[in-house]
Amino acid sequence: MRSLPVELYSEIVQYLDRSDLAAVSASTRDFQALATRLLYRHITFNKDSSVRQIIQLFMTIDNRTAYIAPLVQRLELDWTARSDRGGPIASMLHADLPRMSGLTYLAVSPALDIFTWAFDDVTIPALREFHLANWFKLDRGFLARHPLLERLSLGEYNGGHRPFRDPVPQGLEYLRMSSAAYALALLKRLPHGKDAKLQRLDLGAASYRNPEPEERLAILRLLQDSFPTTSQVNIFGMYAMDVLKDPHATPVKHVTRAGVPCYQHGVRSYREDELRGILVGVARLFPNVRTLDFLGGENGFGHNPLSYRDIARLVEAVDGFGAVELVVFPRGEAFSRIGPNVFEPRPSRVDDYPQILWPDL
After folding, report:
1. Cβ count near 18 (within 10 Å)
2. How far apart are CA 246 and CA 281, in angstroms?
3. 3-state percent helix, strand, coil for the chain, nearest multiple of 5
4. What are 101-135's pLDDT values in tens digits?
5. What's the rounded Cα separation, in Å, for the pair 303 and 223?
6. Which Pfam families match (predicted)?
7. Does residue 233 contact residue 260 with C-beta atoms inside 8 Å?
8. What's the predicted TM-score (pTM) here?
């Protein structure tokens, strides 16, 4: 046990009773190998993480790079950083990321925009999924260095107009962006037609500085004309209602699953008449939709005055939803169609409710 990294002791010992501890003492090497693989596979810096814990982690990775770094598969940075310590931690992150040869998932929260430079000139060999809340400082060669990316989230963008350098990842199956102009530019550079790979698009419409109505309409036309593989679309944010109700928006006929925003911003939920108008817009924009996902705000769905039953009744009353079979709410609670324009609560939860990171960005 003495050779175990120090930060593992508290994580491991709390799960062991006296007999387990005895067994560990008899098979230390096997235990060490198993525990180390499991405990380093998924690393999260949450809001309660201490600076000491984070620095100790990176010191362990530095000291045992060949053994520890390749074990990390998922890294979530959801830590409220202190500006005086964020810089040194970002430096360690910059040095250690290329050593994480097994890292496939990386997410960085809005509080850590000071970490963005840690990705400058960095290549993470196996990266498949990347989610970055604030990306205006992101190195414009990052996408070109990660051709294996399949899922990409780029949240708030507040400056500059530098495009990403080619080539962009050609296998993207999921894209979430809140800059319509950048989303449109990126979509134009992805495979189209029979070669298209994109399955789901989450388009944030939250920026009061750059509403970008023309770019959003252009994205919908492009989806209809060039992305037959895209079956799921979620439009959310402060200006989502404007997009969904725009009479000039091109219907996307191959979309079978669509998001319905229930919050304008934060905890401000739409009134019943507003939500009814949004549903009419969704029915026109996605005429073959079969599943409706009602999207919560920053604090989930708890502040909405309408019950799930109330919302299901609104769906029942809207013309154009004849093909809808399932109405899904946060945490997978759902209503299923049991007859013409009649939905009843589903006995089991739906396990693929579309989580959207940082819905207010």
Report:
1. 7
2. 8
3. 40, 20, 45
4. 999 999 998 877 777 788 999 999 999 999 999 88
5. 33
6. F-box-like
7. no
8. 0.88
